[in-house]
Amino acid sequence: MADKILILTGDAAETLEVFYPYHRLQEAGYEVHIGAPEKRKLQFVVHDFVDGFDTYTEKPGHTWDADVAFADVNPDDYVAIVVPGGRAPEYIRNNADAQRIVRNFFDNDAPVAATCHGPLLLAASGVLKGRTTSAYPELAIDVTTAGGVFENGGAVVDGNLVSARAWPDNGTWMKAFLELLASRGV
């Protein structure tokens, strides 16, 4: 049986930040599950950059079924977690079970990948103190407020954590995460 990896997400997650790791990790031989506040169909979004806008724009993206509700997750069933961005982390960070899952992986020094707004969940879980992480650059203040060190990079590695800024970093982010998994014998 393949090792399992859990993606923690919800509605309004960035489509590319969910699907790229989902398929890339499957390609590498892992069984990948989508975890969300509820086990139901999720609506993802597409964020893009338009000349003249101060921030990204948002359009409806793909839909996808969650495999498991956060409350039903036993972290010991998974070898790693991935936290994509989009707007989902803005509300899943308030979910006690999502925080429980994240803390378990940090407490056990197990592999974690986070990108874009994903570090909002890490901050809310209390695991960024003294840690270096990337994130969507406008979240630098959230990282530092949580006691972390913000690094504006596409594949920032700090121990068990591999982070990136957003979907344009998907290739370097997942390459570094797969290297971390291999180095840990996962």
TrEMBL record:
Read off the CDD domains from this record: GATase1_PfpI_1
Q: Which residues form the DJ-1/PfpI domain?
A: 4-179
Report the domain of life of the source organism.
Answer: Bacteria
Pfam family of the protein (one): DJ-1_PfpI
The signal peptide stretch is none
InterPro entries, sorted: C56_PfpI-like (IPR006286), Class_I_gatase-like (IPR029062), DJ-1/PfpI (IPR002818)
Sequence similarity: Belongs to the peptidase C56 family.
Q: Tell me what this protein is called.
A: DJ-1/PfpI family protein
Which species is listed as the source?
A: Microbacterium protaetiae
| Organism lineage | Bacteria, Bacillati, Actinomycetota, Actinomycetes, Micrococcales
